[in-house]
Write a structure and sequence with these properties.
By secondary structure, the protein is an alpha/beta fold. The chain has a single domain (10-216), classed as TIM Barrel (Alpha-Beta Barrel). It has 9 helices and 8 strands. Strands 1-2-3-4-5-6-7-8 form an 8-stranded parallel β-barrel, surrounded by 5 helices. The protein is globular.
């Protein structure tokens, strides 16, 4: 089990556990080889799904690369699975201190801020590990997210030193244009990698775009 690991930036891959397990793992393997920095299991389970088995299979691949595995919202799975390294919240949990006590071990925590800077302040005050903004562009996989203005992300950078991720319609091309409007540390991607014919190549395209912006900013 990975412990005391952090997330600082790069490509953050979100995977859909409703995908056929063999297909999911076959896409995840080359993505990890290409350098994905974190993996999140989206809270989109099929009825009766064996969640713990899926987590174990995903974690087996990720641990071999030193990559943390996070769960979307369902923090109680951290109590039941030693293979999970953290949780991503879609909104501020009402009882975060109690959640920390119940989990009872170190875990990575991140949160989606949407366009709400009060969430950024909450994350900063509660020592979360990163924040994320969704959605920067229209996206079918980020359909529940409002569009976030780059100025909001830029202001968040003034309020906190936490790593900032952006998501929703992110492509290698628009990473470069977006970085001209606001700095950020990483990108969260679903379909841009998991729907690709060559996940390895697509991860590299995202990484290269992030590298270009860092060297030119």
């Amino acid at each position: 089990m990975i412990s005391k690991i952090t997330i600082t930036g790069g490509v953050y891959l979100v995977v859909d556990p409703a995908m056929d397990r063999a297909l999911l793992l076959s896409k995840l393997t080359p993505a990890l080889e290409a350098g994905v920095k974190a993996v999140q299991l989206w809270n989109n389970w099929l009825p009766g799904a064996d969640k713990l088995s899926c987590i174990a299979d995903v974690a087996a691949l990720c641990q071999a690369k030193g990559v943390p595995v996070l769960i979307d919202n369902d923090w109680e799975l951290l109590v039941n699975s030693p293979y999970l390294n953290g949780v991503h919240f879609d909104s501020i949990p009402a009882n975060y201190k109690e959640i920390q006590k119940k989990i009872g071990r170190h875990f990575i925590a991140g949160i989606t801020c949407s366009g709400n800077l009060e969430v950024v302040q909450w994350a900063n005050e509660n020592n979360l590990d990163y924040i994320s903004f969704c959605a920067m562009f229209p996206s079918s996989s980020a359909g529940s997210c409002d569009i976030v203005m780059p100025a909001t992300v830029k202001e968040a950078g003034r309020l906190t030193d936490l790593p900032i991720f952006v998501s929703g319609g992110i492509t290698p091309d628009n990473i470069i244009s977006l970085q001209k409007l606001t700095p950020f540390d990483g990108v969260a991607v679903i379909s841009g990698i998991m729907s690709a014919n060559d996940p390895y190549e697509n991860v590299k395209l995202y990484e290269n775009a992030l590298s270009v912006t860092k060297h030119t900013s």
